Amino acid sequence: MMEMSCAEHHNYAAASQFITLTVGRVLGALKLESTPINTTGYEALLGLVENTSSGDSFDLYYELFMHHENALEILERLGLAFDALKNQLFGYLHQFVGNQLFGNGNADKVAAPLQEDQNGTALVSSSTSKAMGWQNAAQPQDHKAQISDRFVDKSRLKIAIVGFGNFGQFLAKTMVRQGHLVLAYSRSDYPNVAQKLGVSYFSNAEDLFENRPEVVLICTSILSTEKVLRSLPLQRLKKNTLFVDVLSVKEFPRNLLLQNLPLDCDILCTHPMFGPESGKNGWNGLPFVYDKVRVGGDESRVSRCNKFLDIFAREGCKMVEMSCAEHDMHAAESQFITHTVGRVLGKLGLKSTAVDTNGYKTLLSLVETTAGDSFDLYYGLFLYNMNAMEQLKMLDMAFESLKKQLFRRLHGVIHNQIFEETPDKSQVMQ
Question: Which one is predicted more confidently, 410 or 133?
Fold first, then answer.
């Protein structure tokens, strides 16, 4: 129970209510649907749409617009924030294409689509064949690593994490707790963090791969994945090493791994649909998407892949097997829309009030969650998902449509007052 003056209530509630209903109605126009891989943030947006579009009439929304003196300013700020985000995206995109055209575009270029034979096996380009040359070469083996492998508990995996930032550390913590042997390498130095987590840290990839990991887990950013992958000393690994990625898009890393890894290597594309924030209280019920892109048929390789997947199944994840293409189709809606709305609202500087509604709390939580992710992650979702541009366009059109609906109603009211109801037309015009 909260006692406050009408003026105080107006200052607190009108803005938060109007913003919440505006976002809910814009998203409602997109006809968003639940997917097999909903994130927590996307679930919150679906709930917001249901509350605002089915529970509240347009009349209520229009009345909030009419009776709040700052409503027009809020609409304008939302529009400016959305435009600023689009400009930021397109600025990055322009720079990316410029580097491709006028600079050295090889390091960060987008992986070209692969041709496949009749059996669905990727055909290897000449550049890939060159990278694969180590397969037939007589490579010196690390004798100590071979001996130690004989005594390793076969129920656990030796996992090398490439990219030991926040997400790599987040995954490593659970892997170590389950008894797996975890090694790590990153461009930044994390020896102290690794020691606290019980992870063996290496300052270069050569030393890391000399330890012959069974699994190489790629935890780099989307934008740096290709450059990092091409720099790895693959000749140091066992021929049938399992490579796993955890990127937020899937078609891009699938093509990249097929193009750059030897044919003997196994490939598992995955996406834990959670992170350090949403998964801080456990992974139970959170979606984990995976696609066994290429896994050898012999028992040891199948078992190794299943043991890796079991890391997440043991924590209670909702295990979802689907193709990389299907994942990207769903993720453009659930992930990209969620991140876009969170970043637009983040530019408004929203703050909690004394009378927050559940809907407004949802928006504040969304801003907090997306603000913790780098812009590179968001830009990667945009650049490497072919469905993202269409989602951006639809969001833009939905916002413009809602504004037109408001102004048409406003125009109709003024028109009636001028020509039908109000004798003092000069007062109305003023």
Answer: 410
CATH architecture entry for 126-328: 3-Layer(aba) Sandwich (3.40)
Amino acid at 17: Q
Contact 228, 163 (CB under 8 A): yes
Give the start-to-end residue ranges of the domains of the chain.
6-95+332-429, 126-328
Measured CA to CA, the distance from residue 318 to residue 288 in angstroms comes to 6
Q: Which long-range contacts (CB under 8 A, 24 or more apart) does 26-30 make?
A: 26/395, 26/398, 26/399, 26/402, 27/337, 27/341, 27/398, 28/52, 28/53, 29/398, 29/401, 29/402, 30/337, 30/394, 30/395, 30/398
Pairwise CA distance, residues 293 & 321, whole Å: 11
Residue given tokens 């490593």 in the structure block: 172
Beta bridge partners of 202: 185
User: Per-residue DSSP letters for 384-408?
Assistant: T-TTHHHHHHHHHHHHHHHHHHHHH
- Measured from the Cβ of residue 265, the count of other Cβ atoms closer than 10 Å reads 22
Give pTM, 2 decimals: 0.75
pLDDT of 149 strictly over 70: no
| Angle 424-427-430 from CA coordinates, rounded to 5° | 150
Q: Which amino acid is at 98?
A: G
Question: Which of 332, 385, 135, 156 has its CA nearest to residue 239?
Answer: 135
